[in-house]
């Protein structure tokens, strides 16, 4: 505890005697951290934008495929396609496995 108090007292004395030096030191110490933060934020935004673009492209592809299926179906009835049916079965199996883990 006394080391912390001594260090704090030293910093306060330093700030009182040489405020420009303290400010320069603080700015020099924080600059790399701010630059790293800016770079990581920029990369994160780029990743989010790329993911959103890919999701829009996938959604458009699915909508186009659904439209083609409706055009091919003479009755214009919407039925489950094999890939949709497989996804539904996978969800059911996952739910069943979770349930079995919970009760065991």
From TrEMBL:
<keyword id="KW-0175">Coiled coil</keyword>
<dbReference type="GO" id="GO:0016020">
    <property type="term" value="C:membrane"/>
</dbReference>
<comment type="similarity">
    <text>Belongs to the SMIM15 family.</text>
</comment>
<feature type="region of interest" description="Disordered">
    <location>
        <begin position="55"/>
        <end position="84"/>
    </location>
</feature>
<keyword id="KW-0812">Transmembrane</keyword>
<dbReference type="Pfam" id="PF15086">
    <property type="entry name" value="UPF0542"/>
</dbReference>
<feature type="transmembrane region" description="Helical">
    <location>
        <begin position="22"/>
        <end position="45"/>
    </location>
</feature>
<dbReference type="InterPro" id="IPR027877">
    <property type="entry name" value="Smim15"/>
</dbReference>
<keyword id="KW-1133">Transmembrane helix</keyword>
<keyword id="KW-0472">Membrane</keyword>
<protein>
    <recommendedName>
        <fullName>Small integral membrane protein 15</fullName>
    </recommendedName>
</protein>
């Amino acid at each position: 505890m006394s080391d912390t108090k001594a260090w704090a007292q030293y910093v306060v004395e330093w700030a009182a005697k040489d405020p420009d030096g303290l400010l320069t030191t603080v700015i020099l110490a924080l600059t790399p951290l701010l630059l790293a933060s800016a770079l990581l934020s920029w990369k994160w935004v780029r990743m989010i934008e790329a993911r959103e673009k890919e999701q829009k492209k996938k959604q458009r592809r699915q909508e186009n495929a659904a439209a083609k299926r409706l055009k091919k179906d003479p009755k214009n009835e919407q039925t489950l396609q094999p890939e949709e049916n497989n996804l539904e079965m996978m969800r059911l199996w996952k739910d069943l496995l979770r349930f079995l883990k919970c009760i065991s």
